[in-house]
Write the structure tokens for this entry.
Amino acid sequence: MSINFETSDGTRLNVDTAGEGMPVVFLHGLCGDAGQTSEAFPTEPGYRRVTIEARGHGRSQSGGLDRLSIETFANDVAAYVGANLDVPVIIGGISMGGGDFASPFRKASRSRPRACPCPARLADGIGAGKYDPKCRSRPPFDPSAAASG
């Protein structure tokens, strides 16, 4: 299911959700969209994938070109989470949607996410049992493990 979320500057972002249960904000990589996260997110019952498509990605509007940044993406996601989800929440993502995003999100969010799993290469880890060697200390994304922490 897709809905629009309007940011404080009037830019409409596409928010795509699938599944039922605990919401997991799972963000796409650069030049990706909700299709990317849909393919990568586990299908086990009990979790609802929430993908906020970044400005200029997928079906989201670009807004002002001067606002296209990781910081703006983090602020947009924090605004959506604050307005629509109970916190703390589980946050994960692929490439830009994870690694580049985690630090600015923590600054933008009024409360810390429940978990920010090693996001830099989540697409490699889900279903394949692999993960980026640079993240050896953290296993592939597992929403149930994040929910219990």
